[in-house]
Design goal:
Layout (H helix, E strand, L loop, with lengths): L14 H12 L10 E5 L1 H5 L9 E6 L6 E2 L12 E7 L8 H11 E12 L27 H11 L1 E9 L13 H9 L6 E8 L6 H10 L16
Parallel strand pairs: 1-2, 1-4, 2-3, 4-5
Antiparallel strand pairs: 5-7, 6-7
Amino acid sequence: METSVLTKWEQLPSGETIQSIVEQSLVTWWPRIFGYHLLKIGGLSQQLDTRLCPIHHQISADRDIGLSIRLEPSQLPFQSHSIDACILSCLLDFHVDPLRVLREVDRCLVPAGHLLLIGFNPMSPLMIGNFIPSYRQKPPWQGNFFMPSRIKDWLALLGYQLIHDERLVYHHLLTPLSINSSGQRMLENIFPTTGALYLMIARKLNVPLTSSLIKSRLKKKAWIPAAQVGRNTNMG
């Protein structure tokens, strides 16, 4: 059964602070992303400030009423090769079939289009909450967190070049989060891969991976569903 989907940053502990950190990390990237159509899937994506992006036609879409378009992320109602850039904020963590979502986004993106992914990192202090029963039913711990390495493998299989990979929010989120605290800076310096969130930006290649290379990678990796790190096994 699919877990509940985040619709607002405010649903997360210190959500507004996390949103501000994500937006600040994207500031230098928006001017580099061009085209005619920017697709923002999910409520969290819709809330992000994208005014610095030169793409003027920006579409906000999700299952919930209130966004530009109501849709199922794994069944996008757009023509193939019609979207220039797409941003997914913490959506893969809460979808029953994240790879299908990525395939559908890939179908819609133009060659050389940009995909911006934000998600939760299981190799971070955030996972402390998974061992506390009272937190397991709360966002984000109720989600299914995927290793950043798995996300990179999915992107490679779909034929994307990873051009940016960053970790954000070096904190467990069990207490209020403050920006640029000394403890966060120390953790970032000592263990730079342990940020609670990952931010990846990838470009769709004009020539995707060959079928033989994809088959080779599939043989090396048994593509079983990722370990559901943040899911309560008693959930229906």
